[in-house]
Amino acid sequence: MNPNSPSPALVKTYLLGLQARIVAALEAVDGQSFIVDSWQRPEGGGGISRLIEEGNVFERGGVGFSHVTGRNLPPSAAANRPELAGRHWEAMGVSLVLHPRNPYAPTVHMNVRFFTAMAEGQEPVWWFGGGMDLTPYYAAVEDAQHFHRTCRDALAPFGDDLHPRFKKWCDDYFYLKHRQEPRGVGGIFFDDYNEQDFAHSFAMMQSVGDHFLPAYLPLLERRKDMPYGERERDFQAYRRGRYVEFNLVFDRGTLFGLQSGGRTESILMSLPPVVKWRYNWHPADGTPEAALYTDFLVHRDWTA
Q1: CA distance 222 to 76
Q2: CA separation (Å) from 2 to 5, 51, 116, 196, 202?
Q3: Binding site: what residues are annotated?
Q4: What is the tens place of the pLDDT at every residue in 40-49?
Q5: Quick one: where's region Important for dimerization (predicted)?
Q6: Distance of CA 300 to the CA centre of its chain
Q7: Mean pLDDT of 146-170
Q8: 298 contacts: CB under 8 Å, gap ≥ 6
Q9: Is the pTM here over 0.85, yes or no?
Q10: Beta-carbon neighbour count of residue 137 at 10 Å?
Q11: In the annotation, is 299 catalytic?
Q12: Of 109, 120, 125, 226, which has the highest C-beta tally within 10 A?
């Protein structure tokens, strides 16, 4: 392979394998199988959505693969790259969100993706994007540390600057401006990544995808069987509302999918099944619920 030539076929092979590996590992934890929903997109392309609902561990979880094409870039994709307007495009990726039933087990999101924009007689413009982030309800320092250290390890072979850069990008991106609070304890996030050459950039994206299970499964195993009651479930549902607000108001992937005529069920399978909102509610000082805000919904270096 020419390291400077993008190879969508290689990326697709990797992504399909990643989806299969992650689903197999999650099924082993839950004991229930994911349903498989293959779909086609009239405008071009399709995907495979793999979903679990009312499982033994996961109240809802989705691991989706998509490979879609289009004739013109939607506004969300061309907003920062006006020179790409009018190009036909190809996008593929694996995206997942897992909502465990146990309030002590954190919600997690991960995605890795590849995008190419093409025009007759011109070199293709391509980049990778992705990342992973953790959204706990009853948070633990050791969980945040393990997750962030694994993210750091995923990026370490590709330059010492990547982790602090992508960690800050994640902190800035997964931030609810109207609430003035982070969505969770963060992780890493990157977009428009095409540094050095295709081989280098692809290897970095693969490392992020490959480190998801080591980052998350130990936390899930540690928390999934902890005892809880209605108080914890109620707070979990309230905090899940923040997740919904971010995905529907700010998330670029959601906007891109809907604006490009994507499959609504697959795009919105990240939303939690049980959610609550309350008017002007705040947890009482000194409670475990208040600790989430004071100790964890703050930007800090969790790898130290």
Answers
A1: 39
A2: 5, 37, 17, 13, 13
A3: 95, 99, 109, 111-113, 148, 178, 261-263
A4: 988 888 999 9
A5: 243-278
A6: 20
A7: 97
A8: 182
A9: yes
A10: 25
A11: no
A12: 109
